[in-house]
Amino acid sequence: METDREGPQPPTARGPLSAAVGAYLLGTGPLPATKAVTAASPYGDDLQLALYQCYELHYRGFAGVSPGLEWDPGLLRVRAALEDRFLSALRADTPVHGSVAKAVGALLVEPVDGKGVSHFLRDEGELWQLREYAAQRSLYHLKEADPHAWVLPRLWGRAKAAMAAVEFDEYGGGRAERVHARLFADLMTDLGLDTTYGRHLDAASAECLATVNMMSLFGLHRSLRGALVGHFAAVEITSSPGSRRLAEAMRRTGAGPAAEHFYDEHVEADAVHEQIVRHEVIDGLLEQEPHLAGDVAFGIDATGYLEDRFGARLLADWRAGRSSLRTPLPEPSRTPSGMSHIS
Description:
Layout: H1 16-25, H2 34-38, H3 45-56, H4 73-93, H5 100-107, H6 117-123, H7 127-141, H8 146-149, H9 157-170, H10 180-190, H11 206-220, H12 225-253, H13 257-288, H14 293-319
């Protein structure tokens, strides 16, 4: 069976589930039993990496793994069990607003004394922490907008046209050098990080993997199209103020012009996208499929729930003076002006 010659290297296993899935992808072992999935922690390293490995076959795959395994029946059965474990926990643990209007309204309120990751990085973050943040976020940003593109065939009318317009912007408006994934790679270069797709998978925490897996889960299932729209709304509505703080963090630490530009770009673009998503994508979807309102609210609130978990993990590690990564980053491949702050 032909295998991919390019693509990221398969990750290091984090437990029996991810080890079994990894071995199956390489043709060296059987898939895990379903009972092993049901016994695993839904947010833990092992299950989240196993699920990430399954999903990555729908993106760029892994070096040495057959692209034909993307639709392997046995692997899909295991993926379904992993998804059920994750989604069931997410539905049980996420406090969901009673309406889309209330869920969106909560996103529009910026706390006066915000204490999130972007506030921390703006006010006191050091370059080593910005590098860690970028390394983990690269698991999504190097394929930015790709999980959301899957929803386009599941929409029509106003919602489809508006979603396509936002995606067009995410993909650079037809200009390769302005594709947001390319802009993030440029940010990583400024921070002295390896920009290879998937390079930082082994370093990323389970909390980070869960935020990316949620996007793939919502995007790959037509039944979850409402949740995907809710997720996308949460991202776009909260992006502009958060990006402004991160741009200030990049400037304060001397990270570099491309690092600043990535977030400056999102301040402006996402302020426009917010309006389109709220008034055209969400309203257009619910005009045609009002029964999806609960799913949209769930998508908004589940995004907040997982982002809060990821943020809490980052801040707990950084405030304790320790790395948030599972494996250390290589030494910077270049030295920006502020890199002397790295410890």
